[in-house]
Recover the amino acids of this structure.
């Protein structure tokens, strides 16, 4: 299967369309990944247990038709590849469990405080069913790294997340996510990329399918600066952080066409 143009990135546990994710808010791993890329990719299903994707993109993304030139040669491209292993039906309750690995290497115009640099991102993650009917667990790890280059210092960002989903009834499901993320990278405003150099976060979501194609969620999220310095608060662009904790309670209703 070949796809050419603009497509959602192949890396990560969560996808761009939030309605397809177990939680409404994004994980930190998602924030250090490209969301879309422009180029050509090919997917091939070797068997019921192994699938792979390879591709070539203009840049790391997500800006459409962005170029590495003039910072790099006009022919400089971004290369990506992934594999997915799926447990066969012969493995009982483990059937359908997945393990995915991915790597992307290319030019990122905003890799470190807005300075362009070559970046490499790695990802590994998977989901697995449990003997308890309706309970599924998952895990993911993201790493993004930039080596020292002409306009950019070496920096990194990584994020680990654990997921659990329980289908309590036909319409009611519960979803939980725990995270740890760290980074020494800065934004163009000079603030920590993730809000703090080290962060712990927990998210709990109650989902109920009101009617056909209508999905409703109530979600609570807690983010905590584990680096010993405030990460949240302050008003206005560039305001200094004033709090070490952030609490969010939200409701979300979506209609699926």
């Amino acid at each position: 299967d070949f796809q050419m143009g603009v497509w959602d990135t192949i890396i990560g546990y969560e996808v761009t369309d939030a309605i397809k994710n177990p939680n409404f808010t994004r994980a930190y791993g998602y924030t250090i990944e490209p969301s879309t890329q422009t180029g050509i990719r090919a997917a091939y299903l070797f068997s019921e247990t192994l699938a792979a994707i390879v591709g070539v993109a203009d840049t790391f993304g997500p800006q459409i038709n962005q170029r590495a030139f003039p910072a790099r040669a006009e022919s400089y491209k971004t290369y990506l590849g992934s594999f997915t292993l799926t447990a066969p039906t012969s493995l009982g309750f483990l059937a359908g469990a997945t393990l995915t690995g991915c790597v992307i290497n290319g030019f990122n115009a905003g890799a470190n405080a807005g300075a362009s640099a070559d970046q490499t991102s790695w990802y590994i993650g998977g989901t697995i069913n449990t003997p308890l009917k309706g309970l599924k667990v998952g895990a993911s790890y993201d790493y993004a790294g930039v080596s020292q280059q002409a306009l950019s210092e070496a920096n990194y960002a990584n994020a680990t997340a654990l997921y659990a989903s329980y289908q309590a009834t036909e319409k009611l499901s519960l979803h939980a996510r725990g995270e740890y993320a760290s980074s020494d990278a800065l934004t163009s405003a000079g603030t920590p990329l993730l809000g703090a150099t080290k962060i712990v976060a927990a998210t709990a979501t109650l989902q109920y399918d009101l009617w056909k194609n209508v999905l409703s969620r109530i979600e609570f999220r807690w983010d905590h600066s584990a680096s010993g310095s405030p990460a949240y608060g302050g008003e206005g662009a560039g305001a200094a952080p004033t709090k070490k904790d952030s609490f969010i309670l939200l409701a979300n209703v979506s209609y699926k066409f």
